[in-house]
Design goal:
Layout lengths: L6 E3 L18 H6 L3 H6 L3 E3 L27 H8 L1
């Protein structure tokens, strides 16, 4: 069973890291070891565990084939252009 992190890493984009602090979700013990909750949240790189949707990773695209846009390569306009 997964446990909720004390602080979740948001990624921060380019330069999204602090020296000597792991660029990942942190446990309660790690939060204290690396300066405390207030300091880590103030860095902009961490949020309280439950508030971070980004930490869960990208959502899987479950679109069905019927939901996909139609293939435009065989429309009448494309076929006419091929004949020219």
């Amino acid at each position: 069973m997964l446990t909720k992190p004390a602080l979740a890493y948001t990624g921060g984009g380019f330069g999204g890291a602090l020296p000597e602090i792991p660029a990942r979700d942190l446990s309660d013990d790690e939060v204290e070891r690396y300066g405390g909750e207030a300091a880590l949240i103030a860095s902009g790189l961490y949020v309280k565990g439950a508030d971070n949707k980004k930490a869960a990773g990208p959502k899987e695209n479950k679109a069905k084939a019927a939901d996909a846009p139609p293939d435009a390569s065989n429309t009448p306009a494309v076929e006419a252009a091929k004949e020219v």
